[in-house]
Design goal:
4-stranded mixed β-sheet; about 850 residues; mainly alpha; 5-stranded parallel β-sheet
Length: about 850
């Protein structure tokens, strides 16, 4: 393994070398088992213990009591320096290249350092090739002692959400090996980090960027982004610094430094035109310096070449070659011209980079991919030409280079190059000597090879790379490779591999507390493995699914009840219609207030207020008769409290008790109405009598209809179905100012006709009943029940009620309906009663 990545000797091969060399004979391994034993890594993910098993699938279980990880400690300055060195691009083989000076950016550097020293976050915006990464390196050297946790370098390329960036920040500051905290613990830990964070190649903005900055309030950020990146929100309070092109003097100085000699007048004029066309971008002048160096080599203008004697090592004398200056178009888009003048290994590396979407593999992989043992030096050659740019720990094609190379045919062999890279990475990631951290550093190239390979190579690569990404805690790459592998396995018909990928996706979702996704993925994996009769894989899937069920149950049981504040008394008084007080059916009927009931009114009012809360009426109630009020029987008993409930749970307990019991009968509160005048009391009595008459008339109609369908008995007298009345036959006379006596509840009162109308109303659909004679029948009185009727006189000063008794004679077979049976509940004889 390569020691420049911060790895120790125990992770390297026993036989030496910087990377395992793939054998070229028939013994080339095609499975991870052939390369060595399977790597089983134990991790701690939130509240779970995760065992990454590349054979049957990862196993997950809750942490046992006493095995929870303790509070992680922060790294010291020396450990942070090691992490910072590991985050830089790898050192290339060959002579060390001189560092390029920061040209014309002193003012911007001082401004950025000053803002970061005040704790402000800055967004450095500049086009591709403006030198943002070089400026970040210069600022990092000046900000070493500004924050207690030092300077942290992060890469935002390909990061659209802040989750992975927060995990990367946590892993850089804290010493937490093989541990990936849950979201709650992660947010608690990163809030304690105080560092200057340099985030290069930012690709997110808006709410995602706000979430990142809210999670780390003690950090000052320097965000490098291009102008087409989404801007921060208005209330993010991020300073904006725009990075433009260089001036003419700075461009000439940068060009002279790259060429290594003074410029001629012709070259100065050409550089001026190039600055106008490229807007002074430093990348264009780095590439222009490479063009001038190649021109000098072709023109043999170096002093060493002039001192050599021509023809000593050649068969014929060397002819002088004059290469003119590049045109302005070639200077603005120099990728084709630069690539035509580099070595063959460098051109092969460019084809691989074009096939992988601009990602260049680590220089240790180029000899195996290109087929040249010295191909690792091609990276330094391409970097000096300005065709590559550093991105974190790797290199990518510079801005616009991939498009220019594809236009001249470098992308014609993209599928073949991607297939070759996928098969190489499938062997390399499954090798036992390759540590997971090294695979994570090569994640972008592996994912690019996976996207461009055929389904067979994609399944093999995903199968070997997924456990390495999981063990390295690079879980965003783990999820991407699992989804790509599941799709490739579905297309290739590899059911067992498809079941493995779905199982891993379910375990990953469970670790991230996405229970719905975890259940769906695990059920799919269990179904596929059940079809294959894979007992071990099915057991692992069912164990993980049981954890999902436990988490769902625990989440439902642990959800706290909703607690609301008690409503204010003013709110209750403002909305009285929101409370309904039900009167139990067992309570006594309401009666009109009188002299006898006025004395007991305070006691009844006190009992009523003890069980229910009085709500002031919206409008004054109209006094009506007691029988006209419809009583409601409460389904849920109303319970009384000595205190007003203050929470929603107490209100719920009052309305829905656990052991409901019937409510005790409560005496209704009499209506407090003023004593009516004598004339008004009479009208009230008439109104109540009219309402009762309507009810009685409906009862008569129903009895008449039911009796018409029944067959009378063959023998025996007919008896009318009238309720027994317990009132005496003689009723005392009342004065005109006193209300008429109310009939008891058990028997409906008689109908009160209005003046000018007959007391016996005709039944609809039948002829009026004849008035029977008052002659008593010969039927024995023991077989009949006398019917008493009291009809109050509507007019007159001293009405006298008329009491009639009628004994129905035995009807014949032809006469079954008489006037007496039709008016059994109104009057006995059907004779009208008139007043004086």
């Amino acid at each position: 393994m390569d020691r420049t990545q911060g790895q120790t000797e125990q992770h390297e091969q026993p036989t030496g070398g910087s990377t395992p060399v793939a054998p070229t004979g028939p013994a080339t391994p095609t499975t991870p088992a052939a390369a060595g034993p399977a790597r089983v890594v134990s991790l701690t993910a939130g509240g779970f213990a995760l065992t990454v098993n590349p054979v049957d699938g990862s196993e997950i279980e809750p942490l046992r009591p006493g095995t929870e990880p303790g509070r992680p400690a922060k790294r010291d300055a020396a450990a942070r320096a090691v992490r910072t060195a590991a985050a830089r691009p790898p050192v290339l083989p060959g002579p060390a290249a001189s560092a390029r000076p920061l040209q014309g950016r002193e003012e911007e550097r001082e401004r950025l350092v000053r803002l970061l020293g005040r704790g402000r976050s800055v967004r450095l915006t500049g086009p591709a090739g403006s030198g943002r990464s070089a400026l970040l390196d210069a600022v990092a050297d000046r900000c070493e002692g500004l924050a207690p946790d030092g300077v942290v370098r992060l890469g935002g390329y390909g990061q659209q959400q802040p989750g992975e960036l927060l995990h990367a920040l946590y892993a850089t500051v804290y010493e937490a090996e093989r541990e990936r905290p849950g979201r709650a613990e992660l947010l608690a830990r990163v809030r304690e980090i105080g560092a200057v964070v340099l985030l290069d190649d930012l690709e997110m903005g808006g709410t995602a960027l706000d979430e990142l900055m809210r999670a780390t309030p003690e950090c000052a950020y320097l965000l490098a982004a291009t102008p087409d990146t989404r801007a921060p929100s208005d209330d993010s309070h991020i300073e904006e610094v725009f990075l433009g092109g260089l001036g003419k003097a700075d461009c000439l100085e940068l060009l002279e430094g790259g060429v290594g000699r003074p410029l001629t007048d012709e070259e100065i004029a050409w550089a001026g035109d190039l600055r106008f066309a490229s807007e002074g971008l430093p990348l264009r002048f780095v590439q222009a310096a490479a063009l001038l160096r190649q021109r000098d080599e072709l023109n043999h203008s170096d002093e060493d070449d002039e001192e050599e004697e021509p023809g000593v090592f050649e068969e014929r004398p060397r002819d002088a070659v004059h290469v003119p200056l590049p045109t302005l178009a070639e200077g603005a888009a120099p990728a084709e011209l630069l690539a035509s003048r580099v070595s063959e290994s460098a051109r092969a590396a460019l084809r691989i980079a074009c096939a992988l979407g601009g990602e260049l593999p680590h220089h240790a992989h180029l000899p195996a991919l290109v087929g040249d043992t010295h191909a690792d030096t091609a990276v330094a050659e391409l970097l000096a030409c300005g065709l590559l740019t550093p991105v974190g720990t790797r290199y990518r094609l510079a801005s616009g280079v991939a498009r220019q190379l594809e236009e001249v045919g470098y992308g014609e062999t993209a599928s073949e190059e991607a297939r070759t890279a996928a098969r190489h990475y499938a062997w390399w990631t499954g090798h036992a000597s390759v540590v997971p951290e090294r695979v994570a550093a090569e994640a972008d190239a592996v994912l690019a090879a996976l996207a461009g390979a055929d389904v067979v190579a994609a399944v093999l690569l995903a199968r070997t790379a997924a456990p390495a990404f999981a063990a390295s805690l690079h879980w965003e790459a783990w999820e991407r490779v699992l989804r790509s592998g599941a799709e490739a396995a579905r297309k290739a018909g590899e059911v067992a591999e498809q079941a493995y990928f779905h199982h891993e996706l379910g375990v990953l979702a469970l670790c991230e507390e996405r229970l719905d996704r975890a259940r769906a993925e695990l059920e799919t994996s269990i179904g596929l493995r059940g079809a294959l009769a894979d007992k071990r894989g099915t057991v692992a899937g069912r164990r993980a699914l049981a954890l999902v069920v436990d988490r769902e149950t625990a989440g439902a049981a642990a959800s706290p009840p909703l607690r609301l504040e008690a409503p204010a008394p003013a709110a209750l008084a403002a909305a009285p219609e929101a409370v309904t007080v039900a009167t139990p059916a067992t309570s006594a009927p309401r009666v009109a207030p009188s002299a006898t009931s006025s004395a007991s009114a305070p006691a009844a009012r006190a009992d009523s207020e003890a069980s229910t809360t009085r709500v002031p009426p919206v409008a004054a109630a109209v006094p009506v008769s007691a029988e006209a009020v419809t009583r409601m029987t409460p389904v849920v008993p109303v319970t009384g409290r000595s205190q007003t409930p203050a929470t929603l749970s107490e209100v719920f307990e009052d309305a829905f008790p656990l052991n409901p019991k019937p409510a005790p009968p409560a005496a209704p509160r009499p209506a407090a109405a003023p004593a009516p005048a004598p004339g008004r009391r009479r009208l009230v009595v008439l109104a109540g009598a009219g309402a009762l008459a309507v009810v009685a008339l409906g009862t008569v109609v129903s009895l008449a209809l039911s009796s018409s369908d029944s067959t009378p008995p063959a023998q025996g007298p007919a008896v009318t179905s009238t309720p027994t009345v317990t009132t005496p036959e003689t009723t005392a006379l009342t004065s005109g100012n006193d209300p008429a006596a109310e009939p008891p509840v058990s028997a409906p009162p008689a109908e009160t006709p209005e003046p000018g109308q007959s007391a016996a109303a005709p039944t609809p659909g039948r002829s009026p009943a004849r008035t029977p004679s008052r002659r008593p029948s010969s039927t024995p009185p023991s077989n009949s029940t006398p019917t008493a009727s009291v009809s109050p006189t509507p007019t007159g000063a001293q009405p006298s009620p008329t009491v009639t008794e009628t004994i129905t004679p035995t009807p014949t077979a032809t006469t079954t309906q008489t006037g007496t049976t039709q008016t059994g509940n109104t009057t006995a004889a059907g004779s009208p009663v008139t007043g004086d």
